[in-house]
Design the sequence.
């Protein structure tokens, strides 16, 4: 059952968080936060997503705010640093924001950049982290198979932990995995899980060695855990550039997994200049806890009136897409 729309709107706070570095094409991250009986939750589908896709994110937020969550089996989650597609000279500055992280995810395949830019960035990360640091790269599906194969060879000297979503389609991932298997570099799937009508297709096709899962795009923690169980592959829990509230949902998902082999992408609060609460990495990990946004932070990070209206209208449309109707209880 959906909560009444009025209950969501009455507690809703729309925030705009400034980024320390442009990331995923945005300089400011907007989100709706609202409170339910179980605590605060976040609704923050990216602005370009249609209502059908965004409504899944609202379902996840309602689940987290209104329903009990699975039992945690750990109280802290090791996390990775996230390095945007910055110039190699800026890598030490970025890594310094992620206290104690032993793993770094490096964004590559940025439109307008070259593979040589990616190689320089990854080299700078390796130099900064030393031989014991773990490096993974994320192309967000922007290479074709030949480009991805060429890139994997170009990165070979840096001892990659894995390559995340190098190509867009499941068939491409399967072909690339076949081509580079002899190199021992695993392939991870992200968009092929969270943006697919069949999130298990990549596992059935043996197109990836591990999955990257995110609580909001998969409709909440319980559904994400069901996908993990059915896929039978190791997973990395990551964020969708969430505020501290959304990160706490990701941490709850990671905490409920029976096994957690990899550092998770839940340290992204360090990419913001300011956040609604404190959930940055300390000693390479974040705590598993319910986050309550700070009242002062909600005020200073409040979105403009027109952006607030835009988000609340979107929330209403998504609520209706989930089956909500006026007068629902």
Sequence:
């Amino acid at each position: 059952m959906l909560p009444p729309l009025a209950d969501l709107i009455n507690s809703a706070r729309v925030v705009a968080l400034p980024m320390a570095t442009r990331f995923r094409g945005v300089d400011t991250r907007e989100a709706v936060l609202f409170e339910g009986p179980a605590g605060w939750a976040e609704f923050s589908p990216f602005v370009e997503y249609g209502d059908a896709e965004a409504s899944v994110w609202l379902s996840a937020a309602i689940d987290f705010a209104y329903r009990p969550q699975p039992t945690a089996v750990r109280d802290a989650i090791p996390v990775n640093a996230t390095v945007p597609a910055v110039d190699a000279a800026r890598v030490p500055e970025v890594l310094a924001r992620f206290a104690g992280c032993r793993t770094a995810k490096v964004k590559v395949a940025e439109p307008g950049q070259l593979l040589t830019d990616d190689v320089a960035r990854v080299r700078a990360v390796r130099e900064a982290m030393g031989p014991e640091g773990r490096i993974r790269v994320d192309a967000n599906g922007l290479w074709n198979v030949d480009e991805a194969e060429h890139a994997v060879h170009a990165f070979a000297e840096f001892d990659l932990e894995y390559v995340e979503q190098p190509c867009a389609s499941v068939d491409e991932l399967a072909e690339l995995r076949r081509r580079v298997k002899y190199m021992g570099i695993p392939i991870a799937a992200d968009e092929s899980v969270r943006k697919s009508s069949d999130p298990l297709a990549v596992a059935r096709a043996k197109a990836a060695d591990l999955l990257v899962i995110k609580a909001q795009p998969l409709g909440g923690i319980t559904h994400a855990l069901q996908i993990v169980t059915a896929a039978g592959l190791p997973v990395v829990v990551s964020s969708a550039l969430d505020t501290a509230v959304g990160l706490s949902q990701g941490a709850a998902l990671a905490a409920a997994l029976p096994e957690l082999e990899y550092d998770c992408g839940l340290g992204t609060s360090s990419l913001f200049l300011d956040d609604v609460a404190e959930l940055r990495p300390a000693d390479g990990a974040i705590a598993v806890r319910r986050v309550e946004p700070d009242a002062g932070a909600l005020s200073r990070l409040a979105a403009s009136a027109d952006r607030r209206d835009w988000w609340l209208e979107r929330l209403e449309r998504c609520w209706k897409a989930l089956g909500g109707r006026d007068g629902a209880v």
About this structure: DSSP finds twelve helices and twelve strands in the chain. The mean pLDDT is 96. The chain has two domains: 5-68+295-321, 76-287.
